[in-house]
Amino acid sequence: MFSLLVLITIVLGVVAAVQLSKVYQLAAKLRNHREEDISLADNKMNAWLMLIWMFVFFAGVIYFYIAYGDYLPVSASAHGNDIDMLFTVNVVIITIVFFLVHLFLFYFSWKYYYREDRKAFFFAHSTKLELIWTIIPSIVLAFMIIFGLRIWNDITDVVASENPVRLEVYAKQFDWTIRYPGADSELGFSNYNLISGTNPLGIASDELIIEKIAELDEEILSIEKKLKEEGDFLPPSQVDALEDKIYRLQRHKLRINDVSTSREASSGEFKAGKDDKLVKGELHLPLGREVEFIFNSRDVIHSAFMPHFRAQMNAVPGIPTRFKMTPTITTDSMRVMEDNPNFDYILLCNKVCGASHNNMAVKVIIESEEEYQAWLEEQKTFSESLGGEAEETDEAEESKLEPVAEK
Amino acid sequence: MAGHAQHKESFISKYVFSQDHKMISRQFLITAVFMGIIAVLLSVLFRIQLGWPGESFEILNALLGDRWAPGGVMNQNAYLALVTIHGTIMVFFVLTGGLSGTFSNLLIPLQIGARDMASGFLNMLSYWFFFVSSVIMISSLFIETGAASGGWTVYPPLSALPQAMPGSGLGMTMWLLSMVLFVVSSLLGGLNYIVTIVNLRTKGLKMTRLPLTIWAFLVTAILGVLSFPVLVSAVVLLLMDRGMGTAFYLSNIFIDGEALDVTGGSPILYQHLFWFLGHPEVYIVLLPALGISSEVIATNARKPIFGYKAMVGSILAIGFLSFIVWGHHMFLTGMSPWLGGLFVITTLLIAIPSAVKAFNYITTLWRGNIRYTPAMLFSIGLVSTFVSGGLTGIILADSALDINVHDTYFVVAHFHIVMGMSAIFGMMAGVYHWFPKMFGKMMNTKLGYVHFWLTFVCGYGVFFPMHFVGLAGAPRRYYDYSNFEFLQVALDLNPLISVFAIVGAIAQILFLYNFFYSIFRGQAAVQNPWKSNTLEWTTPVEHIHGNWEGDLPVVHRWPYDYSNPQHENDFVPQTVPLGPDEKDH
Q: Which of A43, A75, A125 to probe by mutation at the B interface, max B CB count within 10 Å?
C-alpha cells in the first residue's frame, strides 16, 4: 500500500512537472522567449541561491562535525593515539581549506552574476598567483607527508618488543578462529591440505597427517566402490565427475606427502602445534603488552578490522600478513569511560567475503595480565580438543563422502 | 579535401551502423542514459534496505521477485549483487563509455575542425562493442544464480570460486566477458581520439590553441590506451582461473570441504593489475568532466579560463601521476610498508595539480559576468564537489590514517563526491551545454534549474553524512548494521541518507523528461546559442556529413578570448583573425 502511494505520488509529480513545463513553453512562445537568453531575474535568483546554499551547507557541515565528529571512542591502543593526532591535524587543515575555497567559490558566484551593462575583467593568467597556489599547497602537503610517514613507519616498525603476545587470527567464511601458542610460545606449523572437521586450521602432526591420508584413502575407496557397483547405471557426466574427484583426491594426497617431506628436511617433527589453543567467538588480549597478529585465511580475502584500536589488516589465503599493536584500555575501563555497561570492542570483517560478510565478527576483550593468563589457562589445547568430541560437526560431515551431484 | 556531397543513406547506415561521429556520440549518450537509469534504480533499491533494514516493501518484491526479495525484504545475495552492478555500470558504462564516448566523439572533430574521426569504421565498432558489452552486463541481472556480487572490483579468490558465493557463478563469467568487450570498445575509441587530435587539427589550430576539453580528452584517451590493456589481462587471467584450472590468483585454498588443487598464485597480483587500471580510471572518469567544465565556465563567466598553460600542465601532471599511485588501494594487503610509503608520496603529489585546477576555476569566476545556464550551475557544482571530495582524498592517501577508514563509508563518501557528483555534474553540464549541437534543439532552462538544485542538495545530503558513518567504523558493503551496537550512527543516519537518495533519484525524472521531450519538441536551436568561441558553433545546426559546408574553418586565436577589451563583443570566435595590434595570447 505504501509503495503504491509512493508510486502514485511520483507519477502525479511527473505529470505536474510536465504540465507546468508545457504551460511555461506556451508562455515562452507567446513572449517570444528563447531558452538561451537567461533573464536578469534568473541570473539573480541562481546567484542568491548560491549564497543561501553556502550558509545552509556550512551550517550543515558544522552540525555534523559537532554531532557526529567523534563518534568512535578514544583510541584503545598506543599507536591509535598517534593516528588520532595525525587525523586531527589533517582534518583541521582540510577543514580550513574547505571553508576558504567554498567561501570564495560561492561568494564570487553570488557577486558576479550577469548584467548587461558590465563586461568581465579580462584576466588570463598571473604567474605570481599561480606560483602562490602551487607552492603553498606543496609546502603544506610536504608537511603532511612527512608527519604521516613518520607515524606509518612507527606503526609498521619491524622491531618487536621484549615479550610480545603472538597469535594467529585465522579467517574463513564466515568466522574467525584465534590461535594462541601454548607453553612453548610457538605457533605450530599448519597447512591447508591438512584441514579436516576436527582440525580447522590444518595444524600438522604426524598422527594428523596419517589420519588425513587415511581419510582421503577411505574417500577414494568409497568412490571407487560406488563406480564399480553403480557405474553402469549412472549418467556419464556423473561418472566423469566421480573420476575427476578421485583424481583430485589423489593429487591432494601427493600434496600432503610434500608437507611431510618438508618436515623431514627441517626440524624433524611437528611438535609445536599440539599445545596451541584454538578459540572461537572471543579474542582475549592482555593490557599493555604488544600483540603481534598473524593473519591467515583459508578461502577468500577477509580483513580484520578493529576500529577501536585503529587497527586493520587483510587476511589473504596463502600469504600471511602481520600487524602489531599494544592495547591500552581494558574493556572494563572503557565501559566506565563510555558509560555503557554493554560496551565491547570488536573485530569485524571489512573485505566483502560472501553472503554473510556482515555477520563475521568476534568480540575483543582487553583484560589485565592476570585475568588474561587465567583465561588462557582454562582453554583447551589443540591435542586435548582432538581427544574430545569433534569441534565442528557440520564440517566433519562435509568432509565425509558427499554425493557428487554436480549440477 | 572539400566538403562531402550529401548522399542518400539508408535507415540502417544512418541510425544504426553509422560511421558519423555525431550520430555515434548520440548513440553513446542515449545508451549511457539508459544504463544510468538502471544504475540509479539499483541504488534506490539497496538504499531502501540500508535505510530501513529488514522492513518489508512491496516494491522490492515486485521488482526483485520471491527469489531475491522474499516477503518484500531483499536478501543478502541480492544486496551484494545490486551494489556490485551499480558500481560497475556507473564507473565503466556511464562515466567511462558514456562520458568519453559521448563528448570525445562529439567534440573532437567539431572543436579541432575535422570532417570526422580518423577512422569512422573503428569508431562505429567502438560503439557496438560498448552496446553488446552493456547488454551482457544488464542480462547478468536476470540469471538464476544472480549477477556478480563481489563488489565492482571483483577481487579473487571470492570472484574466482563459484563455491564462494552464488554471484561468483555464471553472473561473474558474464561480468568478465562484458568487461573484455568493454575494454575493446574503449581501446578502439581511445586510439581513434588520439590519432584524430594529433593529425586532423585544422589550419592554425596549434596545440597551444586547443580548447581544454580537447586536452582533457587527449590525456584521457592516452590513459585509457595505456591502462585498459592491463585490466583486460587481469580479467582474462581471472577467466582462466575460473574455467581452466590455472592458478594466477589462487593458492592454499580450502573451501566447500575440499583443499583445492591450485598453488603458487597470488590474490594480491589481481589487485595490482586491477588498480594499475583502476587508478588511472578515476582520472579517465574525471578529466573529461574537468575539461567540459573548463569550457562551460569560461563561456558562461564570459571570461578567459584563468591560467590556460597551468591548466594544461595540471592535466598532464595528473595523467602522469595517476599511473604511479595505484598502491594506495592496497596499503592493508600486507604490501611492504616501505613501498606503501612511496605510494603515499606519489598520491599526495596529485593534490598539487588538482589544487591548481580548483583555484584556477575560482579565479575564472572572480570579476566574471556569470550567466546561469543549467550547464554553468552544474560546472560550479563540479568545482564544489571536486574540492570537497579531493580534500578527503588527502586523508585516504595517508597510509597511517587509511588503517582506520579503509573500506569504510568514509571511502564511499569520498569517491561518490568526486565520481558520483563531480564527474556526473561534468557530464550533465556537457549535456545541457552541447544539447543544441547534438540535437539541434534547446533544453528547457527552468527545468534545468530545478534539476540542478535538487541534485546538488540531495547529492550532498546523501554523501556528506556518509563520512561520519565511516569515521564511526562502519564497513562498506554491509547488508545490515543493526547487529553492531557501536554502529548506532549508521542506523541513525541511514534513513536520512536514503530519503535524500530517493528524492535525488526522482529529481532525475525531470532531467529525463526534459531530455527526451526536447529532442522531439524542444525549441529550435540557433547556430551559436551560448555566444561561444570554439569551432563547433560555426557548423550548421542541421547535422551534415563532413561537418562544414565548403572549406574547413581556419583558426587564428585561442578559444578563450571572452570579454577581450580590444573587441566590442564579449566573445571572439577562434576564426576571427588577430587584429594588427593584437598578440596571440
A: A125
Contact B346, B540 (CB under 8 A): no
In-domain check, residue A249: no
Asked if B464 and A352 come within 8 Å (Cβ–Cβ), the reply is: no
Domains in chain A, number: 1
* Spatial distance between the Cα atoms of B91 and B180, rounded to a whole number of angstroms: 15
CB of B248 less than 8 A from some CB of A? no
Cα–Cα dist B301/A119, whole Å: 10
Containing structural domain, residue B174: 17-538
Here the CATH number for the domain that contains residue B149 is 1.20.210.10
Range scoring the smallest mean pLDDT among A50-64, A71-85, A251-265, B67-81: A251-265
Give the separation between CA B424 and CA B456, rounded to whole angstroms. 11
Q: Which of A121, A316, A320 sits opposite B333 (nearest CB)?
A: A316
Smallest Cβ–Cβ distance between B372 and the set A113, A300, A343 belongs to A113
pTM for the full model? Answer: 0.93
Is B49 part of a structural domain of the chain? Answer: yes
- The domain of A324 spans 164-188+274-392
Residues of A in contact with B496 (CB under 8 A): none
**DSSP states of A90-109 as a string?**
HHHHHHHHHHHHHHHHHHHH
Q: How confident is the model at residue A392 (pLDDT cuts 50, 70, 90)?
A: very low
- Is A345 within the bounds of a domain? yes
- Tell me how many domains chain B contains: 1
- A125/B308 CB distance under 8 A: yes
A73-109 tens-digit pLDDT: 899 999 999 999 999 999 999 999 999 999 999 999 9
CB contact under 8 A, B365 and A152: no
- Residue B573, in any domain of the structure: no
B73 lies in a domain? Answer: yes
Q: Is residue A245 part of a domain?
A: no
User: Alpha-carbon distance A171 to A157, whole Å?
Assistant: 24
Q: In this model, does residue A326 exceed pLDDT 50?
A: yes
In a domain, B583, yes or no: no
The ipTM is: 0.94
Q: Collect all residues with Cβ–Cβ distance below 8 Å to A391 and sequence separation of at least 6.
A: A197, A198, A200, A278, A385
**CB-based contact B254 A195, cutoff 8 Å:** yes
User: Tens digits of per-residue pLDDT, B244-292?
Assistant: 999 999 999 999 989 999 889 999 999 999 999 999 999 999 999 999 9
Residue A150 lies in a domain: no
Return the CATH number at A296.
2.60.40.420
Question: Shortest CA distance to A79 belongs to which of A144, A148, A152?
Answer: A152
**Candidates B158, B373, B465; nearest CB to A64:** B465
